[in-house]
């Protein structure tokens, strides 16, 4: 390799999902790797994303569990949430994970530098550490700097917080307004509703969760409303002001709302500010996303980028997958590419959504004729729990090939269920294969292999 010329073979900026995986896998191949991180190891997912969010989602589910337990004969008192204890327990777990990441990197022989990094040229990086500026050279440089919340520019936006702040709010908000209709907005609305806040969700468009199957969108909006969230569609926020009774929100239609906390979950933009990309002419797209080829190479030959900073599929497993493909491509032996087909995903609303493949409308556009199977029902558990929550399962089949091209559900543990089906769909499973698969009884998942009557 290039041992004599550069300090490192690979320099990674950003120790989040993608950066840590790339650094660790490359070091395990025997190459010399350095990673620079400005904040805590583990990035968004570990510190302010997937992990703390899922922990809080578990916390919120207990509210339902306490309620439902009565229907099964349990006699319980009124449950009380200790917000300080939940925050402290989450913080301790995140700190433990930071240490795990440090151990993984150091164990693989990666050099960790704490500080803000920027590109000096196509083989040099400068890191602003506590002890001053340090410069490193490397044969390859990987930008894995992730994304950051984007905040709408309206009067009073300084009174609102982003998802980063929600895990550590000094006081639990009795009244929460969530602005946004995407998955992060819906998840926080569900979590804080479950934890006991009175939640209003403002969605600019006619429906939540753009990009998901339309029936699933309608179904989850109804379930979230039934659970107590005031979902307001076609509603735009104009301004926020501070009053003696919390924050006052003015809507575009003149309406007013009061809140203790306003969460802007209005999208995320690539983290590129201060990276020195302009000076080097690195090609960028919308919101500054770094443009890369299918091997994650940017317009500079020795500089690569992956994960959220490329603003393609913003999910942790995708960043991990891209990192492993990149390491294989750079340090051999495989010259493979990442497959972006049939990426499954979950939304941790209450109830959960799990989805893989095409929504019905998307499938019609892509395949022409499709056959749709759907069922919605009360899950067995709720026959005794007295909960009115319902579940939905849906299959979209390409009529010509019989291949199942879309699988969607709303219901408990949807992510756990859909992960398994995603393997079958990746392998090209047809509806006939689903039909010949024996169900596991009594489960919710068995509905997917017992759907027989098309609805469209
Ligand atoms: C609230 C929330 C919930 C989410 N839930 C899920 C989920 O359930 N499932 C899922 O798959 N995904 C989820 N995501 C998305 C997921 O977290 C991201 O897709 C993933 O973390 C992207 O990884 P990354 O490596 O691209 O960037 P990140 O993990 O964001 O890492 C980037 C790192 O780079 C560092 N950095 C940035 N600039 C510099 C610099 N100049 N110098 C040094 N360091 C720098 C940052 O501090 C950060 O640590 C969620 C995101 C959010 C915000």
From TrEMBL:
What does the entry comment about cofactor binding? Answer: Binds 1 FAD per subunit.
UniProt binding sites for NAD(+) = 180-187, 267
* The protein's assembly and partners: Homodimer.
Q: Which residues bind FAD?
A: 54, 308
> Under the cellular component aspect of Gene Ontology, which terms does the record hold?
cytosol
Q: List the disulfide bonds.
A: 45-50
Catalytic residues per the record?
A: 441 (proton acceptor)
Could you identify this protein by its name?
Glutathione reductase
What are the protein's GO molecular function terms? flavin adenine dinucleotide binding; glutathione-disulfide reductase (NADPH) activity
Q: What is the lineage of its organism?
A: Bacteria, Pseudomonadati, Pseudomonadota, Alphaproteobacteria, Sphingomonadales
Q: Which UniProt keywords apply?
A: Disulfide bond, FAD, Flavoprotein, NAD, NADP, Nucleotide-binding, Oxidoreductase, Redox-active center
Necessary cofactors: FAD
Which GO BP terms apply?
Answer: cell redox homeostasis; cellular response to oxidative stress; glutathione metabolic process
All copies of domain Pyridine nucleotide-disulphide oxidoreductase dimerisation, residue ranges:
343-451
| Family classification | Belongs to the class-I pyridine nucleotide-disulfide oxidoreductase family.
Q: Which residues form the signal peptide?
A: none
